[in-house]
Amino acid sequence: MPRKPDRPCSYPRCPELTDGQYCSWHRREEYKKYNRFKRDEFSKRFYSSPEWQRLRKKKLSQNPLCEHCEREGRVTPATVVDHIVPIKEGGAALDINNLQSLCRYHDDVKGLKDRGMV
Asked: Given a cut of 90, is residue 43 above it in pLDDT?
């Protein structure tokens, strides 16, 4: 299936083409800005903890492909480890059985569903 053509990065005056909103350089910058100014303190501490980093790495090594894409018969590398039941809703924070490996697309879709936007 053909892909959409790349488009210019959304960062002002950046000429790079990307398949997402920002080029790889500005994506990192925007993520840093989000973490610094918008993310709550609990999340900042938890997601930067060594325990989470080790568990995330272990999950991605066990399931390097997006679990949703696999169910749909596609092969897509996973880039995100997501809590099936969100921590804020009582999900186990460091239980590998409450984690799933996802691609960026399926993580975004799940995030919108969790927030009631889809």
From this structure: no
Round the average pLDDT of the chain to a whole number and report it.
Answer: 91
Q: How far, in Å, CA of 15 to CA of 17, rounded? A: 7
The whole-model pTM stands at 0.72
Residue 98: strand, helix, or coil? helix
The residues with which 6 forms a beta bridge, in sequence order, are none
Closest to 79 (Cα-Cα) out of 117, 10, 39, 27 = 27
- Shared domain check, 118 and 74: yes
Cα angle, residue 63 at apex, residues 118 and 67 outer, rounded to 5°: 30
User: For 10, which DSSP code?
Assistant: S
Give the torsion through C-alpha atoms of 89, 92, 97, 101, to 10 deg.
60
Our count of domains for the chain comes to: 2
Domain that holds residue 33: 7-38
